[in-house]
Amino acid sequence: MPQANRLARTTCPYCGVGCGVTATLENGQLIAVEGDREHPANYGRLCVKGTALHETLGEQGRLLKPRVDGQEVSWEQALTTTAERLQAQRSAHGPQSVAAYLSGQLLTEDYYVANKLFKASWALRTWIPTRGSAWHLPWRATSAPLEPMRCLAAMKT
User: Fold this and answer.
1) pTM of the model as a whole
2) Which of 46, 58, 60, 135 is deepest in the core (most CB within 10 A)?
3) DSSP-assigned beta bridge partners for residue 10
4) Dihedral sign computed on CA atoms, order 88, 92, 96, 101
5) 127 and 118 in contact (C-beta within 8 Å)?
6) Which long-range contacts (CB under 8 A, 24 or more apart) does 93-97 make?
7) Residue 53 gets which letter from DSSP?
8) What's the CA gap between 25 and 10, in Å, rounded?
9) Structure confidence by residue, pLDDT tens digits, 83-120
10) Which residue has the higher pLDDT, 152 or 83?
11) Do residues 105 and 14 lie in contact, with contact meaning Cβ atoms separated by under 8 Å?
């Protein structure tokens, strides 16, 4: 017997505004969203991204396994290759040859991990988040060698 639709009040994950969302669930699946009319951040209004939340869930059309140079590889290989290539870029052209740009589609936890990777571990000064200034931590100079695998391995946990 199919379950009745259930409404759940939640928060849009896309940016720092924190708009209220009313999600419609059918048999445990998100089928529709609308702005929460009682939420003080948006009073029922949602941007294009928030309005399409229910269209962005699910596995169809998503990349589910890592790829390097167009080939599917293991997570270990993908992380190793990424670390090696970033290290090679930095070694060849200096620490300011690597920058990080993060979009408003990341969740707060993702920003935190990226901040730790790029700023704290790699002493990266070129840091361009688009979600406000909450993660603009002071840059710290370091004379320690770059250890990208340790940083990337921490991201997997």
Assistant:
1) 0.51
2) 46
3) 21
4) negative
5) yes
6) 95/122, 95/123, 95/124, 95/125, 96/125, 96/126
7) G
8) 12
9) 899 889 888 988 778 777 776 666 778 878 887 877 77
10) 83
11) yes
